[in-house]
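So, could you explain the following?
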Amino acid sequence: MTNATPALPRYNPWAIVSLVLGLLLWFGIPAIITGHIGLSQTKTGGDRGRKLAIAGLALGYGEVLSGFFVVLGVLLTVVSNPGMFG
């Protein structure tokens, strides 16, 4: 008698890519795109990695939102101080 355990479904590669891109700075938009692909495939395909895709999405959206506020802050600083650069 063998004690074979059934194989677990594989991790979705898009979910893994989303998490890796989310951890790297400056890759927010690709993390969002791959996160949505991975999330969709984990819902329909039975792959593992739903939480990885969600984490990649959260990191990606956080990076995009942070970038938006940095750009907004720089623009407001430049507009409110016209003599700042010369």
In short: DSSP finds three helices and no strands in the chain.
